[in-house]
## 1
Amino acid sequence: MPSRLSLLACLTSLLLAGSAFAAPDEATSPKAAVPVAGPVEPLAGYDRFDIAAAHRAVLVPGSVWYPASTRTYAITIGDNPIFHGTRALVGAAAQEGQHPLILLSHGSGGNMDSLGWLSSQLALRGAMVVAVNHPGTTSGDSSPRRTARIDKRAKDLSAALDTVLADPSFGPLIDRSRIAALGFSLGGTAVIDLAGGRFERSKYRDYCQRFSDQPDCVFFRKGGVDFDNLPREMEADVRDPRISSLVAIEPGMTDALSDESIEAMTLPVLLLGFGAPDPWRAVDVSASGTDLAGRLPDATYEIIRPATHFTFLGLCKPEGAKLLEDEQDDPVCTDPEGSDRATVHARVIDAVASFLGLAGQPGAASADHQ
């Protein structure tokens, strides 16, 4: 659920304030491109676009990762002093054919490029992944008061879907019968909302009264949010019928879901949780928490241990933990004893790919075209 990530937010906002992309890697820039003998590293394609959304006063930044059929120049997406980035082929032509589409929603204070480790691997398995930076809850722009408007996050994803379906380059390549939504933490809340989950303000108020020490409730209180006067729009029906399956990774706020909406969510759902050895109460969908996994009509639940909520975030650089410690920020680079973040990521990728019926190995869907 929400975390301060103040240092990371500052660093990321500085990076985003510059050019949209980092400089091309020297060995793969257009000027340096030469035929190379031997196997070529399989990379996904990457591009950005702006989303005009009626519910927003500003354009929503969007991105798309996809199976590439050509090689342009490779750059590293989402790299910053805390996290390693992910290499991608900017603007490469997409593979022909029909590809499943995944709408991706980042967690509170996160951003679309920070999840490149996941987006790129799903693209290499044949999917197109469309993500956004949610205004008001993204890196460098994360407000407790605006976080309560979970309906706007879901609408961001619907607007992104409208935009990519209408795009002449990507729209014709999308299999409209296989559109999934995937979210982490507050992003998990958003995609549940998008799939028909209805959140009740009174139930969330009661949850924060009972579990006042949980990070989401603490975050809201620090912003002066009045739990007796949460925005009415939290309860809005923002279901998008185009969504045919759902992946929610450690979703928050599930205590507030109405019983009726849970029963009505008949689409296939994959729930992923972490625990070292026990999960945060705020994101616990097992029988020891909200039991969302047991109450949904068609849910698959998988727990990955040892890992914490933050283990889902990108691979940290060696100096990342020290930088966060010096700034007294959340220990997002510290994993529990016996945990390996790269291994946890691999298990997440495999679980999502299997659930969505994607290729079983990275590069299997695109290696022949690189």
## 2
Amino acid sequence: MKTDSLSQQQQTLLRQLLKAIHNNPGDRQVIYPLLERNASLLNAQFAQELTTWATEKGTASKPSTAISLAQTLCRFAELIASCPQGDHRLYCEIAIASYQVALKLFSIEPHHPQYSETKTLLTELENHYHTLPADSTTHSSQAFPNSRDGLYLSSRVEEKSYQLLQWGGYSLLLLTLFKALEYLIHVNPASLLDRLDLAHHLIDIVWMPLIGLILVFYRQQGYVSRHHLYWLRFLSWGSLVLASFYGVLTLFGFGAALSISQGNLQQWPTAPTNNPTTLTLGAQRTLKVNSATSIAQPFLSAPPISNPQPDPPLGLLGGIWGVLGFTFIWRLTRWTRSFRG
């Protein structure tokens, strides 16, 4: 009877904990006092009760309810494993049991995105558990910093940080597209100088798509849906297209630099000539003026105005870095092209 009474008390505590976590998923001030007040019920038998009760509850429920229970169990495991008071080794055993049940429930829905994440968390916690001494009680305060001194960040915070990096990468790619369209609008295709200026601008912003693709592909792991994999494959092939494009720009810039050095490219206008210019005034008389003396006479006392100079020769180093960088990204993302679904 005493064992049955303890089992009922532990199940009641488990339901209270899961309900509190479901209603307050990020509030440790609600969960930790509840653990501290019921420390006597938290033992090895509590882990067995958790496994039995949660497994029966999850398998008998609808898939959506089972997934919700699994997510709550994962949150409970994170909280109890990082609790600053109590027996840390025992709390790790309870957290491991919670992760194991969550894995079973996540497997109900095929290819659930949290399955691989939970499996990784379980492996990390088991590795940490094996490093704890077995012959003595290890308190959580000895293994983790106290909550007053800092904050324990779970792997979900890390995952959100990686998502921020990926969205930053997409923002850079979108900004690159807008900048390229802005340059194209003001280009005269018939003008060699305009084409050279366009190539110069595009090479100046080569770092934007390069860093953007790196951020998008950074730390891609776990389960990836088919549609997302198709999109990553498109970006992988896009890096090869960009490598080829910047290779063409580099060759074009090299050829234009040779033309400039050989004097075959149209130069900017120089100072006014001294040749007289004939102006016709109406139909009765003509006037001969000297553009260098008559028209510019009022400005002769002013300081000389420097002639506008063309842009410096196209910097080819950025184009070379673009070719190498995009080719490197394309080679390192071969895994996106291995899926044949």
## 3
Amino acid sequence: MSRSALSHFLILSSSSPRFTSLSSRGASRGFSRVPPLGRRSFTPSGRDPRRFQCYCSVSVSEPADSETTSPSSARKRIVSGVQPTGSIHLGNYLGAIKNWIALQNSYETLFFIVDLHAITLPYETQQLAKATRDTAAIYLACGVDTSKASVFVQSHVRAHIELMWLLSSATPIGWLNRMIQFKEKSRKAGDENVGVALLTYPVLMASDILLYQSDFVPVGEDQKQHLELTRELAQRVNNLYGGRKWKKLGGRGGAIFKVPDPLIPPAGARIMSLTDGLSKMSKSAPSDQSRINLLDSKDAIANKIKRCKTDSYSGLEFDNPERPECNNLLSIYQLISGKTKEEVVQECLDMNWGIFKNLITDALIDHLHPIQVRYEEIISDPAYLDGVLAEGAARATEIADATLNNVYQAMGFLRR
């Protein structure tokens, strides 16, 4: 979803990011049982989609259907998106966006704003369009290059909703009833006030991924469960409608969808709250003090770091389970400064909190300032931003419609 014309604002490695696949099998081409994620088999009751705010997928160069190919599809494909809700913060940036920016140099990339996911809970209708544009501008400012990546708005590609409906017909209601997010949020809002979208949004998530024939989804170690429903649903549709059944209807047969596998990005990019080192930095946290927003002013950044939670131990160190806030702040400094963990250890080992807070404040301000400048340039040029989103939607529609047409055919619909 994010994209920026001036990627030189970010200091990124020129080498391709290293990801670890949890499976060595590559793309799923047949109908064998989906391998478990890690050491656990799929258990619908164990899924926790609460952090499905951003996701991205990498697909191998040979898509499930040759109709979806183009000259650029010889490269692996990444599809990624975030919700236009709340403020884009440091956790979003360090945990995902920097990886996307690096990946665009080696893969075919499509980044989108998942505005349809933003309406699963009450929201301000007057703010949705503005938030969508702001999100697009922020990600452009962060370094996504529109000559390498397609950027678009989810609702501008209607195939997302169409495929969601088709997938819904194959999704057991029990899988959705056991989703942890639905249980927690419906209990908090009161069952009578909860919309159906909160229950069915995981099917839309699956549609977002499967439309583009994704093979891999880079996720954090704590997010592997988010992919389970998509994997099982892809396999279920393949078994119900693919193979010989599809071929008898005039299709090519075989798998309709690829079954995506997770990839674990480099460690150390999970950014925690400034007020609680055991909780992830979040848009939905009630206190703005808990996060550094990408558009925070210099004074706001300085104030938040000054007031952030620390501890009374002497010296600074990584990986001490009794010092989660210390580990978090050192990790932020490491990622923002571009230094190695060993370099940060040597530099900060004997520092007190006062000196370190000044150090990390200066590093944050210096790193975020060019992003903020570029954001203002982009948001002040609506014609440019509209053009980027329209071009990206056209490219995404071309790919998504090819997948959608195959699904309609395999499910027996009258061809248009």
